[in-house]
């Protein structure tokens, strides 16, 4: 892996970010942003649109909330790659 960035912290240790870690951080950030938007859309739609007769949310709300949850999980996985790129 090519090292693109390094950081020196107060403890004197130099940490290197590889291409993999940089890419994982970028993907994680974008996934979290999309998840946040899906959650906001789902919540707004839930407040505006009536649910079904059984009291549950309509399909569109369920779909958006599910997307938000799954994207957040994927972002968490990217965070694991970011913190430990050697394991990939």
Give the proportion of residues in helices. Answer: 55-70%
Gross geometry: elongated
Continuous helix count: 2
Average pLDDT value? 80
- Cα-to-Cα separation, first versus last residue: 11 Å
By secondary-structure content and strand pairing, the structural class works out as alpha+beta
Report Rg.
Answer: 19 Å
Strand content: 5-15%
Query: Can you tell me the number of structural domains?
Result: 1
Number of strands: 2
Poorly predicted parts: none
Strand sequence of the main sheet, in spatial order? 1-2
Q: What kind of sheet is the major sheet? A: 2 strands, antiparallel
Helix and strand run: EEHH
Compact summary:
This protein has 88 residues and is of the alpha+beta class. 62% of the residues lie in helices and 12% in strands.
Task: Explain this structure.
This protein has 88 residues and is of the alpha+beta class. It has one domain. The chain has two helices and two strands, in the order ββαα. The protein has a two-stranded antiparallel sheet with strand order 1-2. Helix 1 (19-48) packs antiparallel against helix 2. It is elongated, with a radius of gyration of 19 Å. The model has no long low-confidence stretch (mean pLDDT 80).
